Hints:
This protein has seven helices and three strands, in the order H-E-H-H-E-H-E-H-H-H. The protein has helices at residues 6-14, 24-33, 40-65, 85-99, 112-115, 119-122, 132-144; strands at residues 17-20, 71-75, 106-109. Helix 2 packs antiparallel against helix 3 (40-65) and helix 3 runs parallel beside helix 4. The chain is globular and about 45 Å long. The two termini are 30 Å apart.
Amino acid sequence: MISSHPRVRQSLREADIITISIGGNDLIRTFKASNGIPNASKMTQVLGETRSNVSQIMRHIRQLKRNNEYMVRSIGLYNPYPQATEAAYWVRQYNSFLNGAGSGNYACAQVYDRFEGRERELLFWDRVHPNARGYRVIAEQLNRTGYYPFS
Length: 151
């Protein structure tokens, strides 16, 4: 959408604060397709594709914003499958990438540790998406990233 939808592109040009939540569905789909036992080579492939997508999105944002002042905040992933150690490994791999996906006006709100062990409290009945408390935790973590270059 960022490369081909004029409204999306215009909205990004006009935005001062850009928040990105990306990658979770890719990992969830792959995990579900593997019946909870993810294949390492498939997960590596999906992780690589997701990283590539994030890099392209960040590149498009930089091009659209050029010399304008703006900030980008991404939201790290929590583990919606806490019972699966394999899932935790892949989520942490992705979060490590997200943490370093940008520079300067970019920061990643890490939520993994805030959700770990509190999934029943912070996830909706589907056990995949956050509930109101979970979204509050995410918002608090976003706030903790600060507001550079605006602060």
